[in-house]
Specification:
single chain, 154 residues, Aminopeptidase, 6 strands, binds coenzyme A
Length: 154
């Protein structure tokens, strides 16, 4: 039996522990799998030592992004709670920026729930707000939360 883990398993192991379930931001396994077979969707994984996890290794964080023409959308970035504030997301974003540039991308953007503490991370890396969707998050007990679009020129 192979000890090489499916990247979707590694992504899901982070996904299932990184997001506050209140807001429904985490994707399920099918959504991740479908995105990755669509093409133009990319993932990055890093372990707690900022290396790509080897076959059996545990990922500390991941990104999922989608490339269209000269833009890259950062769909998700997440780090396991126990490995936060150690630069994992910073290392992931730097790699993603480098890869995006090699794909001739000139602008990266993302949508973020208003109030997500990740805003400080994005701003620290130069993302600036460029738009707002009012009441974007409306499900269950959550209502009236805006989504903010942030952009970064590469
Ligand atoms: C946002 C997230 C990816 C950051 O990951 P991380 O590996 O802890 O980030 P880094 O260690 O690279 O942080 C770099 C800097 O960003 C800022 N930052 C990161 N997280 C922060 C937070 N929760 N509050 C305030 N500033 C923060 C800080 O300036 C930090 O530098 P410092 O630790 O020296 O102060 C992580 O908190 C996470 O997985 N959150 C849940 C998932 C999520 O909401 N993702 C975003 C929407 S898809």
């Amino acid at each position: 039996m192979s000890d090489v883990r499916d990247p979707v398993d590694q992504i899901m192991a982070v996904m299932e522990n990184a997001f506050d379930p209140t807001f429904g931001e985490a994707w399920n396994r099918r959504q991740v799998g479908d995105a990755l077979v669509m093409g133009k969707c990319h993932y990055l994984l890093l372990d707690k030592n900022l290396h790509e996890p080897d076959g059996a290794g545990e990922a500390a964080g991941f990104t999922l992004s989608r490339h269209a023409a000269d833009e890259e959308e950062l769909l998700l970035i997440a780090v396991l709670p126990q490995y936060r504030r150690r630069g994992v997301a910073t290392a992931l974003l730097r790699r993603l920026v480098a890869e995006a540039r090699s794909r001739a991308v000139t602008r990266m953007f993302l949508e973020m729930r208003d109030g997500n503490p990740a805003e400080a991370f994005y701003r620290q890396h130069g993302f600036l707000p460029v738009g707002r969707h009012r009441n974007y998050y409306n499900r269950g007990s959550i209502s009236g939360i805006d989504a903010i679009t942030f952009a970064l020129d590469l």
